[in-house]
Design a protein that fits this description.
Length: about 210
């Protein structure tokens, strides 16, 4: 009795709620994926057949150790030398692409141009120190002239300090007006550049004195 009524109950359930869809088989999924792949190839204009899986795996394989180590090292050295050459050229031309990381960025470029357009006492600090060393070797330390030499050196050092302080304040103000937020280290970057002799600065100055950046 139960065996006879079970199919009827099942049929009744199907009749009330509608016939359920059968789950797709594995073959149906494979056929659907193949059809989608063919449609994508037709859309992109690829006429070549899809390579087999073994061919795709072989194409992705790369040797962990180069077969010709000598040629590999030579190519690596050549690439490093080419990069260094481009970096040296960028130091002369200011090419942003090949500049060192510490010199990259529009704010660093602005700081360089602002400092290079300005006359700074710090440019001659190195020469003043050299003159002081030479004089200290010629003049006895206990003589009266040595007091004036020391006084002159410390006066020059104080003047350079005040000049760099004024430069840093003005540079920070100009950077804020142009870029808004000033990147950390940019003002210090410009201040240290002001202590270098103009012709020895790297990257090389690209503006003349008085040509301040806008």
């Amino acid at each position: 009795m139960w065996a006879a009524t079970a199919p009827a109950a099942a049929g009744y359930s199907v009749g009330v709620f509608g016939r359920k869809k059968e789950a797709p088989t594995a073959q149906d999924i494979v056929d659907q994926q193949a059809a989608e792949a063919s449609a994508r190839e037709a859309a992109t204009g690829k006429g070549a057949p899809t390579p087999k899986r073994s061919a795709q795996v072989a194409a992705r394989k790369r040797p962990l150790v180069p077969e010709d180590r000598k040629a590999s090292k030579a190519a690596e050295r050549a690439a490093i030398q080419d990069q260094r050459l481009k970096m040296r050229q960028a130091m002369d031309t200011g090419d942003e692409k090949f500049l060192p990381l510490r010199d990259k960025g529009p704010q660093k470029r602005f700081a360089r141009d602002y400092v290079d357009a300005r006359f700074s006492l710090g440019e001659y600090l190195m020469f003043g120190a050299l003159v002081f060393v030479v004089i200290s070797l010629l003049v006895p330390a206990s003589s009266e002239q040595m007091i004036y030499v020391l006084g002159g050196f410390w006066a020059m050092f104080l003047a350079v300090f005040v000049d760099v302080f004024i430069l840093s304040r003005k540079l920070k103000k100009r950077l804020s007006e142009k870029f808004g937020e000033v990147e950390r280290g940019t003002v210090w970057y410009g201040s240290m550049r002001a202590l270098q002799f103009r012709r020895l600065r790297l990257p090389k100055p690209l503006v003349k004195r008085g040509e301040y950046p806008a």
